[in-house]
Amino acid sequence: MMQMPSLHTDMPADFEKNRRGLRSPDEVMGLVRMGASFPHRLSFMRSFIRRAAAQKLDVHMPVCVLDTQGFGHVVLRMVFCGHTYSLLAFSSPLSDEARTDRVIATRWDACFCLFDGVPDRDDIDRLRDEVTVQESGRYDARILILSRANKSVRLFQHVVDSLACGEQPDLGQLKQIGYLMRTTAVYGNGKFGIADRDHIARRSGLEGPFQAEMLCVYLIREFTLFLVEYCAQQKGGATAIGLDSSYRRYLGIGNSTGLGMAPFLVTHPILLHNWVMVRESALCKVRQMQHATQHHYKRFFDLLDRACIHCDEWQVEDESQMQNIVILRSELADIKNMLQAAPPSESYPFDDIFLRMQAFSCETQELIISLLIEIAPEEVDVLADDMATADEVYLDTSMSVETCADILSEHYRWVESVDISSKLADSLFWYTSQEKLEPRIGHRYEEAGSEQEMPFNIARYVHAVKADMQKADPTQTMATFLLAYPQHRYIIRRIQTTQLYPYAEIRGNLVDTKCRPIDLLRCKLSFFGASKFDPKSDKWIRITLYQGAPTAKELLSGDVSACDDWLFALSPKDRCV
Amino acid sequence: MIKRSVNEIYHTARKACLARGVYPDIAEDFAHCALWLHRADKDGCAALIEMLSGSLPSCKASYRCEETRLVTDSLSPKKGVISIIDWLVSRPEKHYVHASCLEYPLFVFGLLGYRANCYKLAFDIEMTDHNHVMTIAPNACDVVTLPSFNGKFTLSARSVDVPTTTPATISVFPPYILVADALWTELSQLAFQTYVPPSQASRMSGAGAGLVDND
């Protein structure tokens, strides 16, 4: 008695055989490809901005109590889809030595909460004490999101100093960093007593995945733009100027993403399937366009040009990622030349482009897919509504052992290549540290604690259940099988889930010595809409959110189209000249 | 008493079960059960703590199974009740469970209530020596009076028509659930056992970033 999924029934489900069908989960859910993801127009930030623009979002600042250094508190308020939300921002002094992005931090440059409604003075006073200690505070259901951020010290101070002197900041520094502050945690869904997602999931404007978080981070971005200009004003007085509008747009919000985000993809398989399914369905729809208009062609090639420049501007310190970027730049140039020399076929032109991309690297392929999805909003935007649906899947106790074994064979082929007898295949374990509940990865054969590991050793569980299923009567039901082997219930449920939700399972070994958690992080962050992936290690990545997105002033125009064209944002022209 | 979000209770309850050796999937069901009981105005956290105390739960049932009948000495969350309910649910109206006694009745009712919602079933509990049938149906949060269970009973399941507008699970909770401080401390302490003690090495390399982070 499984729940029926909300799939797009007009999408061909036969991955392997259908021309222009969905890409197979074996291809899409591998770690290397997940780690090559790019944002696209169905990313959550894009959905939020479209809706905010349609609403002509108007952000006010009814409360501003800051000293001359910019420390104190501020309230930003807006009405979004009929509901009033307030961002409370508390800014405090912080020494450079104390600044860390780790979960184990206890102090930050700024702390925030997204308040459901309008806080009164008592609320602000009480929340100042709680929000500035973040996880140690206690909250109620009027708080929707809890967050904190640290300054990019170099850039923030440079911008303040420049504006105070009546000059725009150096574009080179802006391009290098891209944000004034970076969030180091954005908590939602009931953490520390804040509102459960269920309470707002049916609220207009917040139905989509992580929309409350996207709204909060957007307001934090507005706060950082306000704060830097405020500090400049305090320093420079009449000499101070405001940031050029193109610079304001270019500045996003940084984010330091560590392991905490990765387990979500394993513990929410159906949600993950829905996100991926929507993206793949969007690609499918574009590939299935039999003819393209001149507008479509122009849009594609304009975006390709933009992507080339964006990638030229994308610089990171991580050698491996920088190598990928260099290859990406070179391949994009090759693709431009190739498509000029041999234009796409007249019939199914975008399928032609897609197929020709298979000769290039993973990152190039995934970037081109983002471009393809971008060009046909009339075809794909409607799919975004299905990203939030997360049906519950309950164990199908009446399923036979034989049927379950068939599903296993089809969807867990990747496990066959895992040599579970080798220590390398399970040398890692994921766990939560007692130290402020920070998620960490340990080395199983060198450190203690693996008995507390998160259940991510999927390959081993699959091997074990397969061995026991082979001993069982194939006509036996799962219920009878589990009476004898209750330890397999977890993996059996995961296996059954993939029958209806084929993109639910990551097809890679998460405990292998070579596993790179940042592949998971990048996949999830691409769905958020993040760009400029900047790995700091295999477990830690910096990204920029809302870079190039319209600012609140621009959203007032209500021009959704003008506000929706910021994929692969480019740096502004130098305003210092 | 302190207000707790549904998500907090779910994850803390789940981890408390893991700490007591319950398998991950079954720990999730136990946590859902605790929430279901709260929704039914019962103290789910208390019921969970009571069940987790004492001897360690076993996820494996002790039973004798014939084609449509499963006989067990005790229907108990500590003795593989999840597997038994799974078996019952696999063929509702055809399978029956006969048990000699019921342990932690409130918790078992919670499990049945949660599963009734998931599978759109009603569970009937018929006392062998009494003319008494108790029914646990989807969204029937009226487990108000519990008969004292001394003796044998039969548990069966049947499909019921549930309006399509009724959620399959009780997802509409109040904004918070009140939990007694002492109970929460006990649950949290159990949950804490699933966290790994830090070390200097894990602090430095377990999460990826350095300890000071400026740009």
Structural class label of chain B: alpha+beta
Report the biggest beta sheet of chain A as strand number plus sense, adding barrel if it closes: 9 strands, mixed
The whole-number mean of residue pLDDT values of chain A reads 93
- Percent strand of chain A: 5-15%
Radius of gyration of chain A: 25 Å
Radius of gyration of chain B: 20 Å
Query: What share of residues are in beta strands of chain B?
Result: 15-25%
The shape of chain B is: elongated
SS content category of chain A:
alpha+beta
Q: In whole angstroms, how far apart are the ends of chain B?
A: 44 Å
Order of helices and strands of chain B: EHHHEEHEHEEEEHH
Strand order of the largest sheet of chain A: 1-2-3-4-5-6-7-11-10
SS field, number of helical segments of chain A = 22
DSSP summary, beta strand count of chain B = 8
Biggest sheet of chain B, in brief? 6 strands, mixed
Helix content of chain A: 40-55%
- Low-pLDDT runs of chain A: 1-13
Helix proportion of chain B: 25-40%
Largest sheet strand order of chain B: 2-3-4-7-5-6
Report low-confidence residues of chain B grouped into runs of 5 or more.
Answer: 166-170
What does this 3D model show about the protein?
The complex is a heterodimer of chains A (577) and B (215). Chain A has 577 residues and is an alpha+beta fold. Chain A has helices spanning 25-28, 31-34, 44-54, 121-131, 153-164, 171-177, 211-236, 245-250, 262-267, 269-287, 294-313, 319-341, 349-357, 362-374, 377-380, 401-411, 458-471, 478-484, 489-500, 517-528, 552-555, 560-563; strands at residues 59-66, 72-80, 83-91, 110-116, 143-151, 179-187, 252-257, 428-432, 439-443, 531-537, 540-545. Helix content of chain A is 41%, strand content 14%. In chain A, the strands form two sheets. A nine-stranded mixed sheet of chain A has the order 1-2-3-4-5-6-7-11-10, with helices on both faces. The longest helix of chain A is centred in the middle third of the chain and has 26 residues, at 211-236. Chain B has a six-stranded mixed sheet. In chain B, strands 1-8 form a two-stranded antiparallel sheet. In chain B, helix 1 (6-19) packs across helix 6 (181-192), helix 2 (24-39) crosses helix 5 (105-119) and helix 4 (81-90) packs parallel to helix 5 (105-119). The chains are: A alpha+beta (577), B alpha+beta (215).
